[in-house]
Amino acid sequence: MKRFDVAVVGGGPGGASAGWAAARGGADAVVIEKGVPRADREGLGPDSTDAAGMLDYWVDMMALPEGVPEHVILRDIEGAAFRGPTESVTLESTSIPASYPNFGFAFHRARFDDWLREEAETAGTEYRVGLGVRDVTHEKSAGSESGYTHTLTLRDGTEIVADYLILADGPQRTITTGVLESFTDAPVADLLGSRRANHIAYQEHREFPEELFDPRYLAFWWGVIPGHTAYPWIFPNDGTVARVGLTMPIDLDLDSVPDRETYRLLRPEDDRVPPGREYVRRLLDAEYPAYDVDRDFPLVEDRGKRGGVESYPISSTRPIDSPCGAGIAVVGGAMGATSAFHEGGDHVAVRTGKIAGSLASAGVLEAYNREWKRAIGTEVIRNVAFADLVRDFSPADWDRSIGTVRRMVNRGGIGLREALSAGYDGARLFARYKRRKFDYRDDRYVGIAGSDYSV
Ligand SMILES: Cc1cc2nc3c(=O)[nH]c(=O)nc-3n(C[C@H](O)[C@H](O)[C@H](O)COP(=O)(O)OP(=O)(O)OC[C@H]3O[C@@H](n4cnc5c(N)ncnc54)[C@H](O)[C@@H]3O)c2cc1C
Q1: Ligand 1, atom 33, residue with closest C-alpha
Q2: pLDDT tens string 298-346
């Protein structure tokens, strides 16, 4: 049975960053990744399913010791287009101060994860891939720096013991849910259950006809498929390849959707929510009616998980605190740091992983709940408030809001002044957003609070 200072479950951006920071802080750290096969990686690695767009200020939020290397970045992006059923607006600024010179970039997620893994290994972390963690138990222990000893059992029965446990097992929370249940009476499985707390995301890597490919903008369609924060997207990658995908709630009952006929990508004959591949086909058909999807947008089969296609859940819940008094931190997608509104989550996974790893290596993980809020709290409140604001939006609401934002942008930007000058709708939208943010003051956006745990 090998003993480590810090054991990390999951080797995605959250887990690799935790291992990296722990090793930089001088800890003996191990990252355990169950291993997922992908067409765009040799050998097993983390899951790495991602539309892989990074905004300018997210780069600052990651607070990496060095920039993201060039071989990871596919292309710089100049802005994002938001399309409603009839309205659209293109934003060329995130309106948040940032040091990255462009709006953002599209990147190769498998290479991003491999780079983080390499950095973690270079710093001295042991990164084990190929065997998942099956179970974790905890025991109070005077001899452990955290006051607890955590025993991890891998799929082959191997045991690993650690003073600190960092859970970076992503939105499926294969280990996180059970661990948290040992420390709280809060209904963890209810709050974090995959079908309730997650969306499903599906995407295809497709080659576009050159005349249709716009390398400058990420494109999102709002109000064209039903479901809270459900939307398709096109993200330009390298060459004329784009990721075409969508995210939507799991198990949405079509019978519960009012005014179904107003959603552009639904058909009268649908008796259930169409699968992701069907939505992608309908999006391409609707946007480019003169083209044939199979002939003109071929799948790029050596990308994605298999055959140019991939699917994975996205956490769409509010973030949770951790039982850090027991030497445990939950980071990234597992803690619900991913935005339910726009699904951006790599930056907060990296940042929360780094915070947990460095606090554990310094023997002060108790500070984790305070420190993650200090680092990403503003971003999380913004995203949670936006997700709430658009709850129950109909296609007409999307059109109205996108039209309002377009008028604001035409008046010079997105702020109070522009909102007021965009008329009644602008002022109302701005006021509702501020109200939501106010409702979440004093950490009220947290799904399970630190005080809900007994350690
Ligand atoms: C289709 C899609 C598009 C997205 N687009 C964007 C985007 O454009 N920009 C952005 O910033 N974010 C995006 N996200 C969100 C982003 O991918 C996540 O927020 C991010 O992956 C979270 O990182 P993580 O390390 O916390 O978790 P994950 O990346 O989910 O990593 C968790 C890892 O844990 C491993 N694991 C799970 N259980 C075990 C176990 N028991 N033992 C060992 N290993 C285990 C898994 O194999 C996985 O590799 C997207 C997500 C999806 C699915």
Answers
A1: 10
A2: 999 999 999 999 999 999 999 999 999 999 999 999 999 999 888 899 9
**410-453: per-residue pLDDT in tens?**
877 666 666 666 666 777 777 888 888 889 998 999 999 999 99
Decide: 143 and 88 in contact? Cβ < 8 Å: no
Q: In a mutational test of the pocket of ligand 1, which residue from 34, 77, 107, 135 has the highest number of ligand atoms less than 8 Å from its CB?
A: 34
Q: Whose CA is nearest to atom 38 of ligand 1?
A: 169
Distance 393 CA to ligand 1 centre (A): 27
pLDDT by residue (tens digit) across 384-393? 998 988 888 9
Which atom in ligand 1 lies closest to the alpha carbon of residue 313? 53
2-75+98-194+317-384 placed in CATH 3.50.50.60? yes
Q: What is the pLDDT of residue 33?
A: 98
Q: Is 338 in the pocket of ligand 1 (CB under 6 A)?
A: yes
The percent of residues above 70 in pLDDT, for the chain, comes to 97
Q: Is the CB of 112 under 6 A from ligand 1?
A: no
Give 379-384's long-range contacts (Cβ < 8 A, gap of 24+): 379/61, 379/339, 379/348, 380/318, 380/319, 380/337, 380/339, 380/348, 380/445, 381/437, 381/440, 381/445, 382/437, 383/339, 383/340, 383/341, 383/342, 383/344, 384/318, 384/340, 384/341, 384/436, 384/440, 384/445
CA of 54 to the centre of ligand 1 (A): 14
